Each structure stands twice: as structure tokens, then as C-alpha cells.
What we know:
Elements: E1 3-4, E2 12-15, E3 24-27, E4 30-33, E5 43-45, E6 54-57, E7 60-65, E8 74-75, E9 80-81, E10 107-112, E11 118-119, E12 123-128, H1 134-148, E13 155-158, H2 169-183, E14 188-195, H3 203-210, E15 218-222, H4 229-244, E16 250-253, E17 258-263, H5 274-287, E18 291-294, H6 304-308, H7 314-333, H8 344-349, H9 354-361, E19 370-374, E20 384-388, H10 394-403, E21 408-413, E22 425-429, H11 432-437, E23 444-445, H12 455-470, H13 476-479
Parallel strand pairs: 12-13, 12-14, 14-15, 17-18, 17-21, 18-20, 19-20, 21-22, 22-23
Antiparallel strand pairs: 1-2, 2-5, 3-4, 5-8, 6-7, 7-9, 10-11, 10-16
Helix pairs in contact: 1-4, 2-10, 5-12
Amino acid sequence: MKYIKINVSDNVAVALVDLQKAEKITVDGVEITINADIPAGHKFALTALPANSHIIKYGYPIGHAREDIAQGDWVNEKTIKTNLDSVLDYEYQPHEVSLDIPKKDITFKGYKRANGEVGVRNEIWVIPTVGCVNGTINSLAETLRAETQGKGVDAIVAYPHNYGCSQLGDDHENTRKILRDMVMHPNAGGVLIVGLGCENNQVKAFREMLGDIDESRIKFMETQKVDDEDETGMELLREIYEVVSKDQRVDVPISELKIGLKCGGSDGFSGITANPLLGVFSDFLIAQGGSTILTEVPEMFGAETILMNRCVNRNMFDKTVLLINDFKHYFEQNNQPIYENPSPGNKAGGISTLEEKSLGCTQKCGKSLVKDVLMYSERLKTKGLNLLSAPGNDLVAATALASSGCQIVLFTTGRGTPFGSFVPTMKISTNTALYNKKRGWIDFNAGTIVENESIEQVKDRFVDYIVSVASGELVNNEKKNYREIAIFKTGVTL
């Protein structure tokens, strides 16, 4: 197969392999002559498209023709322009959702925490209240790893960041909330929080923000108040290690999984293979009683009405409208165009407009009803499909998903990326060529969906793999120790 026409109403098709100029392709019984070399993942016109006419993909307009486009022409960002413009008014038009997905008795080996939450890892984290002590926390984590040889726990990790001081208002609170969410995350069996002493994010106030904690697992050190921060820090870490190293995995129902849905370095196959695979998985997990979270609000623009009309009630619709329009106002307040989103890598991979990107991106959340909408740094509280306010930036969005309580982030990509957040960050390739080239980055290949497997067959293997990862199998970012956090910077730096 050399092409795919995704929806019967589409007037473009996607090349599955590189197409050559003058090559002849038959689509729906019509022979089409290709007018230019067209890279795999890119679009070509199935019929003549006059200037200003809609370009249809996924059954929806993804923009309009800048100029007359002939049948067989390459359709890309040079010949197509977005239809989107400014803040919109929306009308609630709920769609019925009926998913007939049977329940299965699936369990994984997880860590039950005293507060009822479940972790898929049992790690010790060293978290700074402020970037001034980044060197100290890195040294402490390295020393404990050397002492213990990593035995008894899944990992010992320091998470440096640049914030915690010289921030004001909501910007300061965002930092505190993300750090709070990390400290309370079930993948952390124990945490040492390290402060300096003179920062805005004071250790005492941060401790109060946490509420009730297990003081044998969560400890604090203010480096300006101790004689030797290395000696004191190691004493505290050894106490934490003694407790955490005794934790054991137990059987846990799959309904306890909370999974983040993310994409980055997308290409023309993202909306055909990997993102629909995540959508099928999301619907399956929700049918088992589990939860998924979709974020990247700017990459909902152009497909937001699909999500709005799947909201469980009018209140959730109103929250989704606020989610979308607040992010548009954020762009306007910073004097930036709202719809200038596809990156150079996206365009090179075959994505021409934000509508096209968004219609592909939102497929990650399947067809389930939207049960709740979360603000940035807010923790998941409602089972099912949730939407989360965060930007499209890969590190910031993945950190936000993990902070909301996701034990694993699923990350689809057509271009590839090695990064990892503070939870297992599983990379799913949209195409087999990327999987074969970057085995040290990519954990699962969805490219076979357009080769020799149905999406249901791939989904079954995918579920098995996720259960294995939840039970302790490491993904590539963990094997390489690529772990980091990025906090959304929204305000003035003093």
C-alpha cells in the first residue's frame, strides 16, 4: 500500500512511502498522476482544489487552499493556510458515546501506599526547594547510589530545577505545587527535600503545604542551618533508604493505573498509527476503571469542539471552554499569534496547519466522555478521561502529567526524542523506520498498523507491554537515566 485515505470525505490522501513525480496512483477507482516528489507522511490532492476551498483530512477541514491546487499536487504548509482565528464562542452539542469494551481481569505488580495510592516504581527522590542547592542534591543522590549499589529500590534520583526564588504570585505557586505533587507521588517511596534557607519557597511553609505525611519517608534539610549538608543529608537519606528498601510489589488491578497521553516530534503518520493506538488503549483502560489524562492545550485548538461535545455534562463543557479560551488569552497577553504551532520538524514530517496537528493529537484520548478538567498542577481526582491545562512543550507537559498523578506517560513521536520525565516516559514510534533506527529511544512501534497488523492486534500487545512496565520493566529513558523536570514559567523573574 502506497497511500492511505483516512476518511471517506477526505480530499487529500497521505503517502505511506515516498512517491515519485509522474508516478500513477489509483484512489477510489480514479487514476491520479503525482505532480511532484512527495515524501512519506505528506499529503497529495485527490481532486482539483480551487483557491480558498477547504482541505479535508480526518473528515474535517484542516485549512484552506492558498492558491489553486491541481489533482496530484503535493499539499503542504506552502499551499495550505489555517482557518482558525482568535477566541471563539462555543455551543454545547453533546454527542452520545457508547463503547462496548468488555472488562478483563488484568493486574500488575505495584506498590500500595499508605494513603491508598499505587506506584509503579519504588524510588528515592532528592528534590530541592530552590535551584541554589542543585549541586548538593546531585551529590547526595550520587553518594547514596554508590553506597547501596542501587539495591532494594528501583532508582535513586535527584531532580534539579531553576526555580523556588525570585518568583511572584501564580508563578511562584506553580513551582510550589509541582514540587508538592512530586513529593506526594506514589512512584516515590521516599523523598528528601533540600532547601537553602533564604529562598522564597521556604522549607517550613512548603512543609505545611504538604499536610499529613509519613515522616519516616519524607524528610527535610535546610542547608544554611546545618554545619555539614553532605553529612546531614546522607544521615537523612540512609534513614529513608532503610524504610523504602523493604517495600514489596503486590498484585494490583489495572483500574489503579493513571496514564498520561502526550505526543512530540509528530509527523504525517502520528494521526494514523500511534495516536489512534493510544486512543484505543485509553478507551480500553477507562473501560477497566482506570484513568487517562490528555494535555497540550494549544494542540487542541482546531479540534476542541470534538472534545467539548464529549463532555459528560454542561458544567464540564463550560470548564473545557474556559480551558481553551484561557490559553488563547495567554497567547494574546504575550502578543503572540494563537495558531502558529506546527514546528519545523512537524512540517518536515507532513503536518501543515494547527488543525491538522490537533485532529491527529486529540486522537490520543479515544472516544470516551470527558469526566473532568484539571488546571495546571492540579491532581487527578475523577476516574476516566481528564483534560489538563499545560502547554505543548514536551518537558513541561510531561512533567505536568506526572505531577497530576500519572504513574506512566505515553509519548508518541514520528521524529524521535530521548528525554524522560520523573515517571517512566514510554516512547511509541509512528513509523517502523524510526523504531529500527532509534532502538535506544523508542520503546514500542506502532508503525505496523499500516503494514501488517490491525490496530486491535497492536493494542493487545501494547496492553501487555504497559502491564509489564507497570510491574517493573524499565523503558529506555530509565535505562539511560534520562530523567528531568520542567516547570511552567509564567511570570516575572525578580
